[in-house]
Amino acid sequence: MDQRGGIDLGGTKIQAVVVDARNEVLGAERGPTPTAGGPADVAEAIADLMRAAAAAAGVEANALAGLGIGSPGEVDSERGTVGQARNLPGWEGSYPLGETLERELGVPVRLGNDVQVATDAEAELGAGRDYDSMLGVFWGTGVGGGIVLDRKPWLGRGIAGELGHVVVRIGGRRCPCGRHGCLEAYAGRGSMEARARKLAGEGRSTQLFELMEKRGRTRLTSGIWARALDRDDDLARELLDEAVEALGAGVASAVNLLDVEAVIVGGGLGVRLGEPYRARIEAAMLPHLFNDDAPPAIRLAALGDLGGAIGAALLVGRGGDGGRLAPGAGHA
Ligand SMILES: [Zn+2]
C-alpha cells in the first residue's frame, strides 16, 4: 500500500509512473496527450495510462495510496481544478480533474503545478538534494521555473516561478504570452522555432527543417536542434547562442533577487544539450551576477524525463501547504 502514482501532464505527452516508499520507479507508461476533444478526454487518457503503469508495477490502480498530477495551466490544489491550460485541447474553463480521477480510479488525487513538482523532485531526490534553496530552470518549449526556499516550495500566490516571463529586453521580441521582451521569447523552443521559420522564409540557409522532415516530425524537437548543432548549422547555432545569452540574463536576475544556493537546469533542451550548455549558461550568467564572487552551483537535472511524474507522486501524503521537502532523501 506504499505505492503511489504520479502523472506528468504535458502538451504533447502524458507520463505515468508508480513509485514505492523510497520513490523508486516500479512501473512507467507514456502516451500522447489527446489533440482533440476536451478535459474529459484528457482525464480518460490519464486514467488509462495510470492503470497501465500500475499493471507494469504489478499492482491494481485502486490499491495505490494516492495519485499526484503535475499539470500545466492554473492549478487549484485545494479544489482539485485546472483552468486555462492553453496547451491542452478545448481546456478553456475550470475543470475538476482531481474529483473526476478520484471517481474513475478510486484513489485520492492531489494536483500541483507541473514545473513546481519537477523542481520538488530534483530538490528532494535529484541534483538539488544537497541544497536548502534552489531555482529549477526547465528549458523546453517554454522556459519554466520552480523555486525552493528553506527546503519548501515557494508558490507565491499560486504562480511563482514564471522565470520565462522575466524581461530580458525592454520592448523586445514578442513572447507567446503576448508581452514583449520575455526570456521565453528568446530561449523557448517554440519561439526559437518561429524565429527559425521566419528567417528561413527570408532565405537564410539552414538544415533544421530538412532534419525535421527526415525524422518525420512537424516541430523542431530538442533532438533536432542538437543534430543541427552537430552539423555546424549556422542558424541553429545563432539562435541557441541568443537563447543562452537570454538565459544568462534571466537566470542571473532571478539569482540576484533570491540568492539561492543552486540552479538546476532541466527541460527537453537542457537535458538534451547537456553539460556543454550547462557550462555556457553558467558563463552567460556571470556578467549579470551581483554577487559574482560566490555564484550559485549550476547543475544539470538528474532525474531526466521521469522527474515530473516522480515529483507528482511526491504530492501524495504531503500537507496542505505543499509540505516540507525531505532533506536528501535516499534515492539510487
Ligand atoms: Zn512572456
Structure description:
38% of the residues lie in helices and 19% in strands. The chain is an alpha/beta fold. It has 2 domains: 123 residues, 2-Layer Sandwich (Nucleotidyltransferase, domain 5), CATH 3.30.420; 172 residues, 2-Layer Sandwich (Nucleotidyltransferase, domain 5). Strands 3-2-1-4-8 form a 5-stranded mixed beta sheet. A 5-stranded mixed beta sheet has the order 11-10-9-12-13, with helices on both faces. Strand 1 and strand 2 form a beta hairpin. The radius of gyration is 19 Å and the shape is globular. The two termini are 21 Å apart. Zinc ion binds next to loops.
Which features does this protein show?
single chain; 332 residues; Nucleotidyltransferase, domain 5; 2 domains; 5-stranded mixed sheet; 13 strands; 19% strand; globular
CATH class of the largest domain: Alpha Beta
The count of DSSP E runs of length 2 or more, i.e. the number of strands, is 13
Q: Ligands bound here?
A: zinc ion
Superfamily at the CATH H level of the largest domain? ATPase, nucleotide binding domain
Q: Count of helical segments? A: 10
**Gap between N and C termini, in Å?**
21 Å
* Low-pLDDT residue spans: 328-332
What's the average pLDDT?
93
Helical content (DSSP H or I, runs of 4+): 25-40%
**Biggest sheet: strand arrangement:** 3-2-1-4-8
Tell me the CATH architecture of the largest domain.
2-Layer Sandwich
